[in-house]
Structure formats: C-alpha cells, structure tokens
Design goal:
The protein is an alpha/beta fold. It has 14 helices and twelve strands. The strands form two sheets. The chain has a seven-stranded mixed beta sheet. A five-stranded mixed beta sheet has the order 1-2-4-3-5. α3 packs across α14, α6 crosses α7 and α7 packs antiparallel against α8. It is globular, with a radius of gyration of 21 Å. The protein binds nicotinamide-adenine-dinucleotide (NAD).
C-alpha cells in the first residue's frame, strides 16, 4: 500500500480525485503509525485484513426469476477478541469498501476497550428493489453462505446501513438452524442488534446517537467552550438509525435542528425542525421529502446552513473539496463512517473546524453490541439506565484519553484516536507474541 498524503488526491486540473475507501482509511492509519513510531511488524500485520471472504449465491425472487448476489465478509484483525462488525446492504458495497469498514471496526473496538476485533460485511444490492419476503430469503441465503465463518465466539455481525433488527433476527434464526440441536439455544449472540424480545439489548437502537451525544458534550467541556448543548443549533445528513437517534437525543438536550438531508432531498427551517416528528415521518414515508414542517432546499444549500454542530450520518465521502468551503459550523461529529474525504479533512484542520472522528463518535453501536453479547452469554437483561451509564463512562473516559494526546500542529484529534487504538493493540501483540 503506497503512502498517501491528503493533498496528493488532486488531479492536474485541481479536481479532487477521491482515493478508494480503503486507501483513505489506510492513510489515516499510516499517519498515526508514523506519528507514534509503531513497530514495523505490527504495522505490517494491521495494514491488511486477516481474511477476505467473497460469496456468490442464488435466490429465487417472487416473480420466479433467479438472481445471483455477491456478498462480502472481511475479518480485519482479532487479536483483541472475536471479529465484530455490521452488515450493510447497498449498491456501493464492494470488497474495498468492506475492507475499509472492517479496519475501522478494529480501531473502534480498541478505542472503547472491548474484547472484539474488526470485521464488516455486506451485499451489493439496493434493498428498496426487493419485497420483504425476498429480503428474508436473500438474508437467509447470505447467512447460510457465511455459516462456517461467523459464530458467537468467531465473528459476530450487527446492523449497518440499510439493515436492521429484523434482518438480524433472520440471520440469528438461520445460523441457529444450521447448528446442532443441543447447542442452538446458546447461539443467539451470533449477531447483535436483535430485537429486545429475542435477546437484543435495550438501547442498541439509539446507541450511536448516545455516543454522538456524549462525545459532543465531553468535547465541549474539555475544549473550554463556554457553550452548553442547550441553545446550540445543528444540521444532520442522513436521518436513518444514526442520524435520527442523534437528532432526537441532542434535541432533548436543547439543540435546535435547522437542516436535514437524506437520499430523497434536503429540508431547512430556521425556526427548528422537530426531530421526533421528522423521525416518525421518515419511518412511514421512506424519506424526508414532503415533510410539512420545513422548506425543501437543494443539497448544495444544505451544506451552507450555519450551525454550531454538523453531523454527517449517511455515507462515506460526503464532505469533499466540492463543498468543504461552504460549510459554516463550529464542530463536526462523524456519525457515519469516513464521511470526510482526506483533502477535505485537511482543509477543515486548516480552517480550525474540529472533527470528532467516526472511530469514537459512532463507537456506541459496537459498544452496546458488546453489552448485548455479554447479556446473552450470561442470560441477563440489563436495564436501559445501566446500558446508558456504561456507555457514557466508556465514551467520555476514552475521549479524555484521546484529547490528552492531541498536539496542535502535529497530532490532530483523529490521529490521536488512532494512536490510542494502536497503543492498545500493540501492547497485546507484545504480550502474546507472534505464532509460531
Ligand atoms: P440507515 O440505513 O439507517 O440510514 C442511512 C441514512 O442515509 C438514510 O437517512 C438515507 O436516506 C441516508 N442516505 C443514503 N444515501 C444518501 C445520499 N446519497 N445522500 C444523503 N443521504 C443519504 O443507516 P445507519 O445505520 O444510520 O448508518 C449510517 C452511517 O452510520 C453509515 O456510515 C454506517 O456505517 C454508520 N454506522 C452505523 C451504525 C449502526 O449501528 N447502525 C454504527 C456505526 C456506524
């Protein structure tokens, strides 16, 4: 893998050439590894995923036609514990994308100090094109293809983009059916993000929103900001699981939602958009388009809305050199994975706009997934209050550790977060050594 610097990603025309997702994430890793002088051997191990699994399988659609699907599961590293990471359904899913997301999971688990390694998976397709019964058959057949690679102590999937608790139920059920009868009951922690009725954890559905909330609040305290959340303003891109939970939870703390954008368009209301009403509208209409409590604006204008907080919570590479200079905000919190291109990230640093990175801000998802796994292993059900208390401690305490590593001019917040993750992983390799 070549070493890339943010400004290398410009063609002669001045047009930004986006690196591949894995290249972008690898460049972040390399920056931290350089900065901390990471051992060359450990750097080589962490530079590539341990396993890359590609499956192709057929499903008969409702029409009777047969369609082939391509599915991926990348297991990046498991020195800390079983592989762990979401499953996304999206046309953009590719081996490169899943490799990048799997690596991000390794860093995330290390940052919140949970005994999991990083993995990610996905299907390259648009779930909106399929009926519910087709989606069930696709999910079951995909799980069947992965049966020998996943498991409660091996690799544990969870929801991500366009997947949810229902998809996790089908995955769990399919995996269990493939196990010996006497062991089936002890297998429900093969996936997390399940409905509470079948072993899911309270709070998993709002977990990323909670980590966004705790990160922002702790960051404001540490940075000596005179502002509190109450009275601030925000804009959110993406109003699915992550975006809506962030909007609702920050809204409850008095942050006014001024603008929202999703795959159906963008809306703006200077007087404020009610997050709960918008979440319910999006759930019943499949998108925010037509929401009566705000004006429709162009996607271009969405990025220009002046706010205190901007939360990208949709896809990768959404803030690029094409829109970074129109952004007018005080703090960016990455709800989505890798929403900022490397060059735009460098520009934000120059402009003095701080970014709380994905590997901390959205780690609430995997952190509460770990709580779910622990509850399943011990046949327990934790109260929501306990889940929130444990998560809050984890996010705030690890954010403080990261903050202490920031060195203005040399170690930015993202690099500091990587350094914390890499220090923890390197210390385990040092103790365990390399087999044989
Ligand atoms: P989701 O499917 O629930 O919601 C995705 C949102 O993005 C939707 O509002 C959709 O309209 C919007 N979107 C899609 N394409 C868009 C486009 N081109 N322009 C603008 N908006 C667009 O997904 P999610 O679970 O909320 O995941 C969002 C991000 O958060 C992803 O990067 C995911 O990897 C990350 N993440 C999710 C979890 C989790 O537990 N769900 C955990 C950590 C990180």
């Amino acid at each position: 893998m070549s070493q890339t610097r943010p400004m290398d990603h410009f063609a002669g025309s001045g047009q930004e050439v986006l690196p591949s997702f894995f290249e972008a994430v690898h460049a972040q890793f390399s920056r931290a590894a350089d900065s901390m002088g990471l051992d060359a051997g450990i750097r080589a191990i962490l530079g590539e995923p341990a396993n890359e699994i590609v499956v192709h399988f057929p499903v008969v659609l409702d029409s009777g036609a047969l369609r082939m699907f391509a599915g991926y599961r990348v297991q990046h590293n498991n020195v800390l514990g079983p592989f762990k990471g979401g499953i996304r359904y999206h046309p953009s899913v590719s081996l490169d994308e899943v490799k990048a997301l799997a690596a991000l999971m390794t860093w995330k688990c290390a940052i919140v100090n949970i005994p999991f390694g990083g993995a990610k998976g996905g299907l390259s397709m648009d779930p909106a094109e399929f009926t519910l019964s087709e989606l069930q058959r696709i999910t079951r057949r995909f799980t069947y293809s992965l049966q020998n690679f996943i498991g409660p102590e091996r690799d544990i999937p969870a929801p991500d983009l366009n997947t949810n608790a229902q998809i996790m139920s089908w995955m769990m059920d399919t995996y269990m059916i493939g196990c010996d009868v006497e062991n089936r009951g002890a297998m429900k922690h093969v996936v997390t993000g399940k409905p509470v009725e079948i072993g899911g954890s309270h709070g998993r559905d709002i977990a990323v929103g909670l980590s966004v909330l705790y990160s922002v609040d702790e960051y404001l305290k540490l940075s000596g900001s005179k502002r509190s959340l109450n009275g601030m303003t925000m804009a959110i891109q993406g109003f699915g699981n992550v975006g809506s939970a962030s909007g609702v939870l920050l809204g409850e703390k008095g942050v006014k939602l001024l603008a929202v954008s999703d795959h159906t368009g963008s809306i703006h209301n200077p007087k404020g958009i009610p997050p709960v009403e918008l979440r319910d509208y999006v759930r019943s209409h499949g998108g925010l388009s037509g929401f009566p409590g705000a004006d429709a604006v162009s996607n271009e204008d969405f990025w220009k809305v002046k706010t205190d907080l901007l939360i990208p919570a949709a896809l990768e590479s959404q803030i690029t050199m094409a829109n970074v200079d129109s952004i007018d905000t005080q703090l960016i919190v990455e709800g989505a994975n890798n929403p900022i291109s490397p060059a735009a990230d460098a520009r934000l640093l120059d402009r003095g706009i701080p970014v709380i990175p994905d590997i901390l801000a959205n780690a609430g998802g995997v952190n509460v997934s770990y709580f779910e796994w622990v509850q399943n292993k011990n046949s327990q059900t934790w109260r929501l209050e306990k889940v929130m208390e444990e998560l809050e401690f984890s996010i705030r305490s690890n954010l403080r550790l990261i903050y202490r590593k920031v060195r203005p001019g040399s170690v930015d917040f993202r690099t500091a977060a990587y350094i914390l993750a890499l220090e923890r992983i390197a210390s385990i390799y040092k103790l365990r050594g390399i087999f044989p």
